[in-house]
Amino acid sequence: MKQHLWINGKDVEAKEYRDLFSPYSKKKIKSIAQANEKDVKNAIESARHAAQTMADMPAYKRANILEKVAEFLTEEKEECAKLIATEAAKPLKAARGEVERTIMTYLFAAQEARRLTGETIPMDAAPGGENRVAYTVKEPLGVIGAITPFNFPMNLVAHKVGPAIAAGNTVVLKPASQTPLSALKIAKLFHKAGLPAGALNVVTGSGKTVGDVLLTDENIRMITFTGSPEVGISLRERAGLKRVTLELGSNSAVIVDSEVELHKIVPRIVAGAFAFQGQVCISVQRIYVHEALFTQFVELFIAETKKLVIGNPLDESTDISAMISEGDVKRAKSWIESAVKNGAQLACGGVDEAGILQPTVLLQVPNTEKLSCEEIFAPVVHINSFSHFEEAIAAVNESKYGLQAGIFTTNIERAFKGAKALHVGGVMINDFSTFRVDHMPYGGVKMSGFGREGIKYAIEEMTELKLISFKLNDPV
Ligand code: NAP
Questions:
Q1: Which of 1, 8, 54, 65 has minimal CB crowding within 10 Å?
Q2: Aldehyde dehydrogenase domain location, by residue (predicted)?
């Protein structure tokens, strides 16, 4: 069956279609429209046309539309979770979690639509500013180009479409080629919720083809991108005066200080390392454990890892399934082999069975290995020991990335010290780096990107601040 483009509130046929296969079963799911340059231009034109309608729409109506999308998603929760599980091979348990979060993201967007405020400016604080009343308003930018990755095909779309619509913008969305169906599903729910035609368009197809048009078309006022650093950086370099936000990758770390109760934290760190096969931007990839607890931590960690159920993403009990592509399995295995060759110890996993890479734990990996210093984006984690807390902080910071990090400690001095010293976008004390709720400010430093998401913060990026100053008659 063919899945068309979604432009101007309608299914639009494309010239070319490409088959989409399940990463797990390798069976064909659907034929997906491949937008060409003209299709993308049409989508941008529809969005440009709808921009005034959206900018004029009162806040309560924008909020109502977002609330209705959340309501429809709630009614179709299970169907949506199965869609994510099918196209991304995300285990159903995790896919259900993603749908729940997507609902929250749209509800937060609805709330933010209602409280989009500016401020009054005390103009008379400066000589010459007397006798004026001034205030700011946040105006929508217009048409936003949104490019999203495969790993959270509903919630990361929500983190772009939610704030964009809340602020009165229109959107041309390019979802990842492996996960177009979740994005198209959302577009249809917006349509059913009463979003004007053209306010949200979905153009599926090649990242380069669609991306190049979004970058070069002058009607696109902003590019909001979530994905790999390589693509993000090239977009930024070519974006000229367009606003750009980049949510990129990481090799997130957690520190386990001495004296923490391991049985409480190990299951959580295992979940943070292996959820969705480690294909999460804030997955735990590096663990630094105080030497006093190292042996015990490793034993518990491996025992907990071995409990993970491997299999079909649509099975209720599955924790780990297929990675997004066979090429990524090969890449991860070659990084594992290199680490072992250069002195790391393989504690479990390291092999693939029926195309599924087993959850893999390595010990004492040199920081020069790709498995440590690059983003592996696979069910692979390494555990290294440290003697002094400062040493662990330095190891976490010795990375080109900086998205989130976690510190487990009972020592308040060290907690504050670590919070200050870690060069990342978010520090989780007594939690894993993988922690995120959808209204918190979220984003990275260094090669993890710039700009923040988390509805309210994304809206800052998606609006233009305008000052309005009234000069009053001189007082008599
Ligand atoms: P990706 O390969 O960079 O793809 C992301 C999106 O960019 C896809 O829609 C892709 O389309 C598109 N794209 C590819 N080439 C393009 C080009 N030349 N111009 C414009 N767009 C282009 O990333 P991914 O593999 O889907 O996702 C994994 C990465 O995303 C990881 O690095 C992960 O850490 C990062 N991520 C970051 C966050 C965060 O919030 N910081 C969250 C999730 C994921 P095609 O699919 O058609 O190639």
A1: 1
A2: 16-467
For the chain, the domains span 2-248+448-467, 253-429
Query: Ramachandran region of residue 475, left (φ > 0), alpha (ψ -120 to 50) or beta?
Result: beta
391 is catalytic: no
Percent of the chain residues topping a pLDDT of 90? 99
Residue nearest to atom 23 of ligand 1 (CA): 227
In ligand 1, the atom with minimum distance to the C-alpha of 159 is 40
| Mean pLDDT (whole number) for 419-432 | 98
Closest CA to 18 of 1, 35, 31: 31
Q: Determine the distance separating the centroid of ligand 1 and the alpha carbon of 58, expressed in angstroms.
A: 34
pLDDT at residue 240 tops 90:
yes
pLDDT at 13: 98
CATH of domain 253-429: 3.40.309.10
From ligand 1's centre to the CA of 225, what distance in Å?
8
Question: For the residues 126-143, what does the mean pLDDT come to?
Answer: 97
Rounded to 5 degrees, φ, ψ at 102 are: -60, -40
Closest atom of ligand 1 to 175 CA is 9
Give ligand 1 pocket residues (Cβ under 6 A): 147-151, 156, 174-177, 206-208, 211, 226-228, 231, 235, 247-249, 281, 375, 377, 403, 444, 449
Find the range with the poorest average confidence among 84-88, 104-108, 228-232, 472-476: 472-476
Q: What is the pLDDT of residue 476?
A: 63
Does residue 171 contact residue 199 with C-beta atoms inside 8 Å? yes
> By the 8 A CB rule, do 201 and 220 touch?
no
Q: Which amino acid is present at 430?
A: N
CATH architecture of 2-248+448-467: 3-Layer(aba) Sandwich (3.40)
Q: Given the residues 80, 87, 112, 281, select the one marked as catalytic.
A: 281
User: What is the per-residue pLDDT for 473?
Assistant: 86
Judged against a pLDDT cut of 90, whether residue 65 lies above it is answered with yes
Fold agreement (2-248+448-467, 253-429): no
User: Ligand 1, residues 231, 234, 245: which to mutate, most atoms within 8 A of Cβ?
Assistant: 231
The predicted-structure confidence for 6-40, as pLDDT tens digits, reads as follows: 999 999 999 999 999 999 999 999 999 999 999 99
Torsion of Cα atoms, 62 then 64 then 70 then 71, to 10°: -160
Mean of per-residue pLDDT scores for the chain = 97
